[in-house]
Design brief:
232 residues; alpha+beta; Glutathione S-transferase Yfyf (Class Pi), Chain A, domain 2; four-stranded mixed sheet; 8% strand; Glutathione_S-Trfase_N; transferase activity; Glutathione S-transferase
């Protein structure tokens, strides 16, 4: 049985969507990162980087959300161009890794410095807000010419996009005005949200309760780098 280690954050939700699209049976294993469960020895044996999501598939272990998307899509031969489709596959890999190396990290840092970091934070927030907007603008321009990230074909690239696009007003701190600036991102978000699998993925998330308080213990687990400041 495939095991899915997750919480309700954007990256695990990408995998929840793909699992629902594929109709694969799996065992859900919640990992409450605000309680520090990501640092448990059993979980570190699965992902030594102490992050969700991760999966185990028999004796195969895969961590990092975009690696999991690629692994499952290729295992099932769905939602990803095959090796024989070289042009389409090149585009898919490029956009998938653009989301992995750009959209995710810069969006995450935009969230951190906008909503969590202590003052002063003007320089850091300016940098990550700028880079988050720059990366999202690349996708917006691409989607102005394409129905989905790979043209007319829905794929794991759209699922990777969906995970973060759901949170974009919060990521950028721009509320509903976000969609005036990024109408094609919103169009694709709406297309994916209308899919039954996306609705099942959102419903799946609500079956589990994760700690919401950002108290001292949660901050210790979520921002362990601050311990160095406390010792200074």
């Amino acid at each position: 049985m495939l095991k899915f280690f997750f919480n309700a954050a954007p990256n695990p939700m990408k995998i929840a969507l793909l699992l629902e699209e594929l109709g694969l049976p799996f065992e859900a294993v919640p990992v409450d990162t605000r309680k520090g469960e990501q640092f448990a020895p059993d979980f570190l044996a699965i992902n030594p980087n102490a992050k969700v999501p991760a999966i185990t598939d028999g004796d195969v272990t895969v961590f990092d959300s975009n690696a999991i998307l690629l692994y499952l899509a290729e295992r099932e031969q769905k939602f990803m161009p095959g090796v024989a489709q070289a042009k389409e596959r090149g585009a898919a890999l490029s956009w998938l890794l653009f989301i992995a190396s750009g959209i995710g990290p810069f969006s995450g840092q935009s969230v951190h410095f906008r909503h969590a970091a202590p003052e002063p934070k003007d320089y850091a927030l300016n940098r990550y807000d700028f880079e988050a907007h720059r990366h999202w603008s690349v996708l917006e321009k691409h989607l102005a010419q394409n129905t989905y990230m790979l043209g007319e074909h829905y794929s794991i690239v759209d699922m990777a996009l969906w995970g973060w696009a759901r949170m974009l007003p919060y990521v950028l701190g721009t509320g509903e005005a976000t969609w005036t600036q990024y109408p094609h991102i919103k169009r694709v978000l709406d297309l994916v949200n209308a899919r039954p699998a996306a609705q099942r993925a959102e419903a799946f998330k609500t079956k589990y309760t994760f700690k919401t308080e950002m108290d001292a213990d949660a901050k210790k687990f979520m921002f362990p780098q601050n311990e160095r400041l406390n010792k200074a």
